[in-house]
Amino acid sequence: MEGPRFSGEVLAGGGDWWVTRGDTTQLDARYLIRSHDGAVIDVVNRGYFRASAELGRRHEAGEEITEAELYYPTAPVFQTDAPDYLWMTGTSSSGWPAPEPGFVCVRVFMLL
């Protein structure tokens, strides 16, 4: 993962929980990110995934789904005591996952 102010990798061992009611799934994902310089950032990312039965079927079948077809906003919260990344802990952010074959890709926008 990389961006203009941060680069790092998601560490193995995170978890996610999904609760589905009708066409909407409430998400709660928790994971750790190690920055390029070794700092560890704890992430709690909550949001919603909304998809019709047809879109769910296509996803399960491995068919390509475009970003325009998704309703999948998230609100990641970052926690760390690493001095270089404290700015992340006091900033609201919004995430918007993008289809990426074989990966979960979330673009995060910091609301400054």
Give the total of beta strands: 7
Number of domains: 1
CATH names the topology as Porin
* Amino- and carboxy-terminal Cα gap: 20 Å
Largest sheet: 5 strands, antiparallel
Coarse morphology: elongated
- Uncertain spans: none
* Strand/helix succession: EEEEHEHEE
Radius of gyration: 15 Å
Helical stretch tally = 2
By CATH, the architecture is named Beta Barrel
CATH hierarchy, class: Mainly Beta
Structural class: mainly beta
Helix content: 10-25%
How would you describe this structure to a colleague?
- By secondary structure, this protein is mainly beta.
- It has a single domain (8-107), classed as Beta Barrel (Porin), CATH 2.40.160.
- The chain is built from two helices and seven strands.
- It has helices spanning 53-60, 86-89; strands at residues 8-10, 15-21, 24-35, 40-50, 74-79, 92-100, 103-111.
- Strands 1, 2, 3, 4 and 5 form a five-stranded antiparallel beta sheet that branches. A two-stranded antiparallel ribbon has the order 6-7.
- It is elongated, with a radius of gyration of 15 Å.
- The mean pLDDT is 90.
Which helices and strands, and how do they pair?
Blueprint lengths: L7 E3 L4 E7 L2 E12 L4 E11 L2 H8 L13 E6 L6 H4 L2 E9 L2 E9 L1
Antiparallel strand pairs: 1-3, 2-3, 3-4, 4-5, 6-7
Sum up the structure in keywords.
elongated; 2 helices; mainly beta; 11% helix; single chain; 112 residues; 51% strand; Porin; 5-stranded antiparallel sheet; two-stranded antiparallel ribbon
In short:
The protein is mainly beta and 112 residues long. It has helices spanning 53-60, 86-89, and strands at 8-10, 15-21, 24-35, 40-50, 74-79, 92-100, 103-111.
